[in-house]
Amino acid sequence: MEQRNPISYVHYSGFARKPNDHYATPDWVTEALLRHVRLRGPVWEPCCGTGAMAEVLSGNGYTVVASDLHDYGYGMPGVDIFACHAMAGECQSLVTNPPYGDTGSHKTQDRSPTAMLDFVRHTLSLAEGVDGQVALLVRFQWIAGKRAASLLSSTPFVATVVLTKRIRWFDMGERTNTGQHHHAWIVFDYQRARGIPPSLYFAE
Ligand SMILES: C[S@@+](CC[C@H](N)C(=O)[O-])C[C@H]1O[C@@H](n2cnc3c(N)ncnc32)[C@H](O)[C@@H]1O
User: Fold this and answer.
1) Which of 23, 69, 71 most suits a substitution to test ligand 1, by most atoms within 8 Å of the C-beta?
2) Residue 106 DSSP symbol
3) Is 88 in the pocket of ligand 1 (CB under 6 A)?
4) What pLDDT, on a 0 to 100 scale, did the predictor assign at position 172?
5) What pTM was estimated for this model as a whole?
6) For residue 106, is pLDDT > 80?
7) Strand pairing of 64-66 and 133-139?
8) Using CA atoms, how far apart are residues 106 and 146, in angstroms rounded to an integer?
9) Based on CB atoms within 10 Å of each CB, which residue in 46, 101, 104, 161 is the most buried?
10) Is the pLDDT score of 101 beyond 70?
């Protein structure tokens, strides 16, 4: 029997942002995605943290379901995406910055390329059930890995939005360093038109 997703409500946001959520994804990163990709809503942000991405999505008119494994005072805490077997609520797309990057504050997380592959596979399995979309922020370098390339080639991969500006994960005023890595959005769509190669966009 199909296991039901623990999230059954739509739109969960509106909490105040923490003043020092320095690990949050800067707004311009999500705005860059939205300039090039039209999502079908509602949108699920399953690793919402303090809601940085969720807020930009709802600010752009999307209804957003926000959840996270941990409690940051935003969205629904205690939801492990790997324990979910269906999209949240009525969501048609899933957008997040997976917990396997270089955002610095999650020191114990598994940052291996394999963990990211598992995350991509799992989120795609969720989206497939609704012919939905997935947009994930990854290190640009990750895409070039053999296993990532092989996975992307066998999925409904429709676009990459390469960020030509590097992300600053910590805001330390004038002492802020530019991040070491370039990042990109990888976008999948189960309603893609067949035979059309993935699009490549550049954004900052
Ligand atoms: C890199 S942070 C991104 C936060 C937010 N999306 C942003 O961009 O500002 C990754 C988030 O994933 C959450 N996370 C880690 N493992 C998770 C899991 N198994 N299920 C759901 N969320 C998870 C962490 O608690 C953290 O908030």
Assistant:
1) 69
2) -
3) no
4) 54
5) 0.86
6) no
7) unpaired
8) 26
9) 46
10) no
